[in-house]
Amino acid sequence: MDHESQSDIRRPKKLIFAPGDIPPTPGLKASTIPQPQFQDQDEPTTPDLRSATSTPTSTTETQILSNPSRAHQFTTNPPLTISQIHNTNPLHQFHTWFRDPRLVASSAPETCTLATASMPSGRVSARVVYLKELDERGWVVYSNWGSREGKGGQVFGTGNGEGNDDTLAAMPEPDSIQQEIGVGNKWGALTFCWLNVERQVRVEGLLEPLSREESELYWRTRERGSQIGGWASWQSRVLWDADPEMLTERQRRKSVAVLQEGVAGIVPVDIEETDIEDGRALLEARVKEMEARFEGVKDIPLPPFWGGVRLVPESVEFWQGRRSRLHDRFRYVRVGGEHGEGARWRVQRLSP
């Protein structure tokens, strides 16, 4: 075995490349991209089910090393200076950026990433949510918080309410005090990324639950189907799982060999058919159960485990792209006063 072959064996597999690092192939169309080959044997090996393009060749690696990065070069905005940002309040500055006319509704500027961490392990998780409100106290998002397996357990702990395996726990009241140490971690972070205007906002602070009355105001604006979904979904609960051997034995094979051009790309012809039950039926059964439960009910009530939380900021960072990765970053850090209009903020420029 030659030296190059030995090197290929030791090299860890790379599945994803940063966009733009490799020059596009002229004239390459989606239909010409090699597709995974699904074999007819009853027990195909794992490599047979893998795309031949999942591991880079030595030629590909040479392209990466011999070409400068073609990642996005930031050119949209003029330099961001201290005179351009609000001098006393980061929430007002956020409102100004959020209302930038370049942030059209179709770009969903309200989309953000919420990060929380479990205690005492410190294990961090993040998920995409929608900003629904911003007031002088902070940023508000709504979701299901009752599941101990999800963000509700991370933020409010696993001991809130009287939940058990069949009933989700209720959200705590805003003024309730956690007597048990370590049951939850109120620290959270929100990140907004607006690529079309080359801007980013990072918010860090404490998460507090809204009152039930506040949550009901937003709940009434949701369409009926979303309200039913709020009752039906035990968010982050495991509906189904399978070990690798089961998937290898039972996953669809010949069916995916027949493809069709769809709106979202190349998809199996029988995409709506399922080879084996994967837990979706349980969710749909719960939806039907909730539809029957609230049949004839005009105003579906707010679930006890569903509602809003407010991220009360301790720091807010405004990031704007500049050439050569020498970005502008200004951070507001709360140094005194009450949260809200009475808060006092120190402003810092950060190194990019």
Automatic annotation (TrEMBL):
Its cofactor is FMN. It comes from the Eukaryota. The keyword Lipid metabolism does not apply. Residues 1-10 have a biased composition (Basic and acidic residues). Residues 63-75 have a biased composition (Polar residues). Keywords: Flavoprotein, FMN, Oxidoreductase. One of its GO terms (molecular function) is FMN binding. Residues 51-62 have a biased composition (Low complexity). Residues 306-352 form the Pyridoxine 5'-phosphate oxidase dimerisation C-terminal domain. InterPro entries: Pyridox_Oxase, Pyridox_Oxase_CS, Pyridoxamine_oxidase_dimer_C, Split_barrel_FMN-bd. Its EC number is 1.4.3.5. GO terms for biological process: pyridoxine biosynthetic process. The keyword Ribonucleoprotein does not apply. SUPFAM superfamilies: FMN-binding split barrel. Residues 1-75 are annotated as: Disordered. Pathway: Cofactor metabolism; pyridoxal 5'-phosphate salvage; pyridoxal 5'-phosphate from pyridoxine 5'-phosphate: step 1/1; Cofactor metabolism; pyridoxal 5'-phosphate salvage; pyridoxal 5'-phosphate from pyridoxamine 5'-phosphate: step 1/1. This is pyridoxal 5'-phosphate synthase. It comes from Penicillium arizonense.
